[in-house]
Here is the input.
Amino acid sequence: MRWQSNHFHSLLIEDWGGEYTVYQPDSGKTHFLNQMSIRLLSFLSQNPATLLEISHYLSTAFEQEADQDFRDNIEKILYHLDALGLIKKEK
Amino acid sequence: MEIKNSKEQTDTPEVMQKLSTGNNQHKQKRRTLLKGTAALPVVITLYSGSALARSSNIMGEAASVSEAVFVNTIDGPQLLCVKPVEKFDNGTYDIGDMPSYMLISEPKIQLNASEQVIMMKKAQQMDNCHLLGGIMISATAFTSIAAKTGAFDNLMIL
Here is the structure.
């Protein structure tokens, strides 16, 4: 299964020194994201990716070990972002 | 290979401009180290402005009975117990435009009792407040709500 961003270009993103507020016009909600979350969103805005690809990208970018725990956490956040409408599953 | 290509695509001027992350990798790494939460993605959804506008008085319960507001009455201190109109998933409460409250009189607290007994009875008043569906509010919240709504006029606070 591949994930992709959902209306990424409509988001209003403000950088607060490495932490981000993201206004989502579709829902009228404002989200607070850290660097890894925003990198995840921007990564998926460029191309759909699988959990494995996303985990590999983030682990490399943030010098983390892409072990099972890390992948599990990434998977959880993917489903959370999906529930918020910030990303979606590729059809 | 595909992932490498993806990274190159991610770092397009458009995206980088949008994120304003800058090019200073050392600074970025230092930030990553300093911010413990950078090890995992974090997403927190904030209240929308419209939700805040609808709910004039959103707050959490006082963290402990020692931070709660007690009203000085002729029968001793009584816990100010506020009845919320709604509880949100994140544990906060909306106490409404004009908060309703009650004073918890049982068990009676005598100020000449030992500090330990007073604290125990205050905790029992807290339990009674919860049983009635109420919450304790902090002195800070009390001051804010009192100034905005006048709901607590004429109360003498300890």
Remarks:
- Helices of chain B lie at 2-10, 13-19, 25-34, 49-54, 115-131, 139-149.
- The longest helix of chain B spans residues 115-131.
- Residues 59-149 of chain B form one domain.
- The interface with chain A takes residues 2-3, 6-7, 9-10, 12, 15, 18-21, 28-29, 31-32, 35, 37-46, 48, 50 of chain B (CB under 8 Å).
